[in-house]
Amino acid sequence: MKYSIKKGDNVLVLAGKDAGKTGEVLEIDRQVGKVVVANVNIQSHHKKPRNKDDKGGILKSEGAIDISNVQIICPTCKKATRVAHSVDGDVKSRICKKCGASLDVVKAKKTAKSSKKA
User: pLDDT tens digits, residue range 20-48?
Assistant: First the structure.
């Protein structure tokens, strides 16, 4: 299924125990429709030491939540928004429904700046 959320997007959690929190998308599983967001849905895993050098303990990590429970935050107007799509020639871009700004432009600028430094 096609989704309007991509890895690296800043999203707002709409439902669940972490409703109202924001974070960056770390992973997307498009077949299952799940997304992993930084510092959201923290789960504890108890790890048993397997040898004398291995340390056991309680490990905390982010769990997956349903992709329908998150909404993109527009980098321009800083509001959670639905996504529109526009096609200019061969380029399809994501547009904020509230302010009309492109949601893809910010990522292009970040990659352009990082390539100049290298």
Answer: 999 999 999 999 999 999 999 999 999 99
Question: Does position 106 have pLDDT exceeding 60, yes or no?
Answer: no
Counting every residue, how long is the chain?
118
In order of their start, the domains of the chain are: 1-47+57-73 (2.30.30.30), 82-118 (no CATH)
Report residue 110: phi and psi, to 5°: -65, -40
pTM for this prediction: 0.77
Find out whether 68 and 34 touch, Cβ atoms under 8 Å.
no
Q: In the structure encoding, which two tokens stand for residue 20, read together?
A: 């109202």
CA torsion sign for 8, 100, 77, 64 is negative
